[in-house]
Each structure stands twice: as C-alpha cells, then as structure tokens.
Design brief:
Helix 5 packs across helix 6. By secondary structure, the chain is α/β, with parallel strands linked by helices. It has one domain: Rossmann fold. The two termini are about 30 Å apart.
C-alpha cells in the first residue's frame, strides 16, 4: 500500500504481550476523577513479538505521560496462510529467502483481508490502536507490488507482523476505529497520496524534494500517521530515555504531548461498543 507509511513497525509493555489494554483517563488538571465519573477506554498497541524495545517502551511512556497505560494486542492471523508457531511459514514467503511475503501470499492477503482471520475477536471492545515503528513493509503489499529494495545491509522484514498489522489496520479502517502510528527506518517513505483518501498534513524538504511527514484520513474519526517520533521527544524531555542528552534535537514536549492527548480524547468520545 503506497498510501501507508511506516506506521508499524511504529513501537516492555508492562510485561504484558497479550490482552487488550484498559486505560483510565485523567482530567487535564492531572487529578484522578472519582469512580462515578471515570471513563474507561480500551487502547492497545498493535501486536509485535518483542515488546521490550524502544519502539514500544517509548509509546508506553508517552501515553503514560498523557495519563493512560497501554498493553499489546494479541497477534492477528489469517487462516488462509500457513504458520509455524507465530511465524508465517516459509511456503508463504519469497523464493529468494529474504523473508517477506511472496507475491501470491501478498495478493491473497490484500484480496481476502480480515475475512477468515481472528481480527474481530482481537478487536472486541477496543477503542483505539497504536502502530509502532519496526521492520520494512513487504514490497508485495504495496499498491503496486514490486521487488525488494536490494539493499543487502537493510534486509529487515517480518512477515508475521506485516500480516497482523495489515489485518488489524484494515479492520480499524473499515470499522472506523481510531488509529495512529509512527515510522521506522527512514529509507522508506510515502511518495504520493494521489488517488487515495489520504491528506498530507506535514512535509519536510530533503535535497529539494518535499517528503511527506504526516498523513490523515479525513473520512475517518482518526486515522493519522507520522514520519517522525513525538513519543521519543516526550521520553527525552521527561528524562526517561536511556540517553536524554540530545533532547534539544527533538520536537518540544509541549508540541508532542497534545498528539497523544488528542488521540485519547477521540477514543473516549466514541467508545466502540459495536466491537463488544
């Protein structure tokens, strides 16, 4: 999908890999509301096998700073693909052994989608999903499938995660469940939103080329992707990063934290009871 940027890939989730998060949202004053007025929303990070890397821990800290606690969703699998444990079986991968979905598997995933998957079960009662940074997206899942990038030093594919993220994201979009995500390695970028329902909301100029830094679906309650790291900025400025010495090189705390608070508010104002 060319209209997708590195939204996954976007990201120690309280030592919990499985299960939907229940978040307790606090008022802007920082005081916890009474039990009678407390509004609970369920927001979770899209599945990834490793939850103890900075893509996840920074997201956790950023949302905690915004007043909530997050965990990771279970893996979403397609029953029309073969698996070996949590991993997509080699029979569904490229013939060169690089590790991404084969042309046939990519086409099947794009055509079948979450029908024949456990997406509805995983998303039951979920009010919002965060996609973290991570590996490269399989080239067979682009709007125009293509060969892999041929950069030997940058071979970094995760077919199981591609499938889980693709199914989770398409389910969210079809059911208008709020989603947001951050990028991964910056050798992949969005070239154009032409012919898609996406709107460019932020750009930066690199070597005279305007690179897309932010997108959104204006026909959805909240479907936002960014090609920068507001979660890292929050962790840096609060001194919770392993290295906070370069915090001045990141966006300001006051510019980053509203992104998370706004996402929480969208989820609070439209709890997805239809997914229960």
């Amino acid at each position: 999908m060319k209209q997708t940027i590195k939204l996954w890939t976007l990201s120690a989730i309280l030592a919990v890999i499985c299960g939907v998060c229940v978040m307790t949202c606090y008022s802007s004053s920082g005081d916890a509301p009474s039990d009678s007025s407390r509004k609970e929303v369920r927001i979770a990070i899209a599945w990834r096998a490793e939850a103890d890397n900075e893509f996840c821990t920074n997201i956790v800290e950023a949302f905690r700073e915004a007043g909530v606690t997050v965990t990771v969703l279970p893996q979403v699998k397609a029953d029309y693909l073969d698996y070996c444990g949590n991993a997509v079986a080699a029979t569904c991968l490229d013939s060169c052994g690089i590790g991404y979905l084969s042309d046939a598997s990519g086409a099947l995933l794009r055509s079948r989608g979450y029908d024949g998957s456990n997406a509805a079960e995983v998303m039951s009662g979920v009010d919002g999903v965060i996609f973290t940074g991570g590996e490269d997206i399989a080239p067979t899942l682009l709007a125009t499938p293509q060969d892999w990038h041929r950069i030997e030093a940058e071979i970094d594919y995760n077919a199981a995660r591609d499938v889980s993220d693709f199914l989770t994201m398409t389910y969210c979009l079809d059911h208008d469940i709020p989603l947001t995500g951050c990028p991964s390695w910056h050798h992949q970028a969005l070239l154009s939103t032409e012919g898609t329902p996406l709107r460019v909301t932020a750009t930066t100029t690199v070597s005279g080329i305007d690179m897309v830094e932010g997108i959104e679906r204006t026909d959805k309650r909240c479907a936002v992707g960014v090609q920068f790291h507001p979660e890292a900025a929050i962790v840096k400025h609060t001194g919770k990063a392993v290295n906070s010495a370069n915090a001045d090189q990141f966006m300001a705390y006051d510019a980053a934290i509203p992104l998370f608070r706004a996402f929480i508010e969208v989820c609070k104002n439209g709890n997805n009871n239809d997914n229960d």
